[in-house]
Amino acid sequence: MLQRPVIAIAGLSCETSSFSPARTPGGAFHPRRGPEVVEQYAFLHHGGSLANSADWKGALTGHALPGGVVVRADFEELSSEILDRLAVIVAATPLDGLWYDIHGAMCVEGMEDAEAELLRRIRDVVGSNVLVSASMDLHGNVSKKLAHQTDLITCFRTAPHEDELETKERACRNLVGILAMRPETGGVSRPFKAWVPIPILLPGEQTSTRVEPGKSLYELVPAVESKESILDAAIWVGYPWADEPRNHAVVMVTGWNEAEALKEAGRLASSFWKIHRNFHFVAPTGSFSDCIESALASRRRPFFISDSGDNPTAGGSGDVTFTLHQLLNRPEFRDTDGPSVIYASLPGPQALAVMTKAGVGAVVTVTAGAQVDSVHAGPITMTGRVHSIRYGDRDAEVEAVLQVGNVFAILTKLRKPYHHESDFAGLGMNPRLADIVIVKIGYLEPELSDMAADWMLALTPGGVDQDLQRLGHHRIHRPMWPFDKTFDRPPDLTPLLISFSNAQNEKQYD
User: Fold this and answer.
1) CB-based contact 384:341 (threshold 8 Å)
2) Global pTM?
3) Domains of the chain: which residue ranges?
């Protein structure tokens, strides 16, 4: 009976906008180390589906809220710790595999293709014989370098993301499955990998898998994966709010039959390109003013508005005050008898200090916002009643609600996304009873979608502006849809066979 394989776990995950003035520090990754790494994945717990399939060794993982470019010194510190911890694992026992748990759209100051560079460094420590399986967000970017350095690679198949844990488990199951095939004499067969870059770069708000054409496109993936010789099939739509050459859509198919992998990758890529003109926003859109007018005219409650340009879960700074300025200038919301509005949210640590000192029920004047991104509007000063205060949130740390007229504005010590009904309930608010709910988000996450009687996507400014053309990309490959509406010739979607070979890496990367 073969001994259980030894598999290490490592990775850093952060979706970062290079168009946001924010910077992501190392602490934002909330790093887990050693046994803590294994504990965060239910399928690796005692009794979990893969718990006994390998000897799982946690090195270090970190998952940061999306934001601005990662501070280089902090990245280097976390990376060095990953390498040191892997070195200790390798010194204690032969390592068979590595699960590389990443997002795929992390940008680091002064570095290009950060995930591929980190994996290159990891390879220097663990060696070329270790099999690497990567799990990613479908909004990540798969460069040729990253494709070379991995043996297996997969990504989410739903947007909004409802299969994150399922994807991570699939990455581990695929790795365990290959390692179980190794012969007694040592050595492991490596699968074939077919990689196809596609000149499309669209925001997630136009590529949701809940609606067409994304729905039908992603329904092709399980059919490809079901073929006997195929291990995995994946489609990345890419991340549009960063400006690196690797930012574009990608298809990858992994399998044991070279011809089949190439054929299926080409078929998925062609299917993607055939429908590239059919992608559209998943909700009615308009300026913020248009959205407010529509909400006031509508009888459907609650009416949700996505403040999409400053979405913190896509990489926005979260502190753009553009929409709150407009909202509080509207006469309809100045009277407590007017339509009720919940606004989520705006960072304001100094405002929080005033509000928490004054306490619930106090009337205070505070200033918040625009400490990071003041390009589109300056800080906002408000006078209102402290409605509620909450301490201890993982992201915000401290939250409080300021009632200004009939606007209930959530202020936070640190930026935080509001995706769950409990986020509001914990602050004494019921969004189901509000007239209008304004959330800094793009497409609505499942719980928000379930609550919304109606919804519009506001095309607001910020670091994750939905109007990609006005952001100023200059390093992405061209032509690229939708930056270029016409192509001199159809793109070459011939799949490339990607293999891992230490001796040939540099040539392969050219």
Assistant:
1) no
2) 0.93
3) 6-280+493-509, 288-459
